[in-house]
Amino acid sequence: LSVDAPAWLEGLNPPQKEAVLTTEGPVLMLAGAGTGKTAALTARLAYLIRTRRAWPSEILCVTFTNKAAREMRHRVGELIGEAVEGMPWLGTFHSICAKMLRRHAEIVGLQSNYTIIDTDDQLRLLKQLIADQNLDEKRWPARQLAGLIDRWKNRGLNPGDLDAVENEAYANGKGQQMYGLYQQRLKSLNACDFGDLLLHMLNILRTEREVLQMYQQRFKYVLVDEYQDTNAVQYLWLRLLAQERKNICVVGDDDQSIYSWRGAEVANILRFEKDFPGAKVVRLEQNYRSTPPILAAASGLIAANSERLGKTLWTERNGGDKVRVIGVWDAPEEARRVGEEIERLEREGAPLEQVAILVRAQYQTREFEDRFIQIGLGYRIVGGFRFYERAEIRDALAYLRVIAQPQDDLAFERIYNQPKRGLGAKALEQMHRHARATGMPLAAASLQLADSDELPPRARTTIASLMGDFLRWRDMSETVTPSELLRTVLEESGYDAMLKADRSAESAGRADNLTELSRAMEDYETLGDFLEHVSLVMDNDAAGDEEKVTIMTMHAAKGLEFDNVFLPGWEEGVFPSQRALDEGGLASLEEERRLAYVAITRARRRCTIIHAANRRIYGQWTSSIPSRFIEELPQDHIEVETTMSGGASLWRANWSEREDPFAHVSAARPERSGARGPGWQRALSTGYDPKPKRLAEPGRSAASFAAKPRSDIAIGARVFHEKFGYGEVIDQEGNKLEIEFEQAGTKRVIDSFVSLA
Ligand code: ATP
Ligand code: MG
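Structure tokens predicted for DNA 3'-5' helicase:
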């Protein structure tokens, strides 16, 4: 050890120490979960600063999440014994590149105050471009193009870099042109998308020698955590920055590569030794995190993968509970059971902060959230929204709220143009104005507008047909179950189609969340009951600062650890996911297995795997098959338990016979009403009485669409209209006026839009 080595280095094991002390030259730390890679990387960062080998601002340190960056900053401060001033280059690839790009934006034709656009804006831009090119957006959806462009950017490809195959991937050879046009348009808006942050910086480093040299000089040391999940553009960017000094230390685990769907290339690990010859390869084998059974279960499972470098893991710890595998009857029982287990842990004095439920897909959180709220168990959803707060769930709920309660302006405003119907801000402004003037709810006001010339013909047709839909759905809501109603609404509103056209990685998850919503609704007889339940659930934020259980996806849990980990839903089609099974390839299955490895290795003391014998999908009970990953666990280290009488063998027989244990439940559901409701014309003549459960607010009780207060403006009056100018009232019906305008001719307008001239 060098003389200035701090005492805390003694806490590290020899290979960790080596990774810290080999400050010069390339270092590749390749090791399994929980072996102290992140700990060693953090110690290295502290060591470099503490020994004055570099100022904090001279170190580039990349973490996988912003949270990990914050934790690392905090830990370095602890090790050094004082808060570290300024580590500007500690963060995720995106945050670091965003900061760099501000300084060099002009090189790629941007100003330093450029905006970073989100997916919505990205799609809007692409749609315009597609229309400009007279391409059929139905045939060549903007989302498809967006997905392609993201992938190209992940691979570091500019429009000019695309080969013929890539070019063919969109609109018969228009890929390159559209990508180019999109980049131009972004530039003219002084904007860039997420992928551009890296691609622009890579381009700058590639073309501007001085800039490259400046950063190569500045960054005396480069550190990268979770290296197995870097994609090509990130890799190329790193390689350029580190190529000069070659003081680059990357740490990773090929068994934990779980982001290939975002372009991550595990091959980057293998390439490292080629690009940085003479790299010191450090292998850590001692696991400090988990008990022997947990470690054995995880190692046994991942051994089933063929594509791996292979490594050994051992621990000094003894004993520890076996990994439990629990079979339950169905999803509600799964949530109940986990709740009970957690309450038991709590009684034993385990801190809730150290309990995590890791799910494969976001939709799985719903059942747990509902249950935990019921039993008053504090929880937090990390790396995502609570179920009922997710955008697609809020959209769906907004539709249902308008159906149940047409006065719900907030809900109406949320979905009047979602999916996009071409109703812009202008239309909304008109609706608001009219609603304000008449005291009508937005929905009713808009229906009235649709019957006037206040809006352009297209907007009028659109609104009329949307309101027609609402009336039909409202009629339906009296005859079909809430969950059937939801499915109809999603289909007929175009919401389903919107998600289908979306080929982004998230859209499938959104569709699954909506399926889960419909599943949740099956427990309620009326729409009102269900909406009431939701408002209670959404209101339950009271848990405050008390200790909370963490619910998150396995993907988001990477790098973290908890004393107690629950892994629900280990069934074929849930985990491994149906998508991975459908794709069928070995690669996707092996990625799922790596995810299982990541999940199990988050546990320090206890790991509990759960699978349910039945899942309910669209009102149908389907028997599920336990995940193949359960069979792959080494039998000596697991303890199987089933809560069902007759034991596992019985229900296994059950699922193979594929009988429907709850046939009577689905049979009891009312027939779907085939009758199509009346059109919006009927609404105008007969009214659209929402039949609210509670008394409507005063002034709003005239919320029926038929409400037509009489206008104060009499026939013959001279009036002024903002859009149509001066004119004379020639007819009047309720609050609608027929006016002969001097310039615009005869129009039907609503009285609140005119003033007496
Ligand atoms: P993952 O692959 O999951 O990211 P990792 O290899 O980064 O895991 P760390 O999170 O750094 O592992 O460490 C796992 C646990 O082991 C942490 O609680 C850490 O504090 C502890 N640990 C690491 N090194 C040592 C050590 N030398 N002695 C004792 N405990 C250690
Ligand atoms: Mg780590």
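Confidence is low (pLDDT under 50) at residues 645-706.
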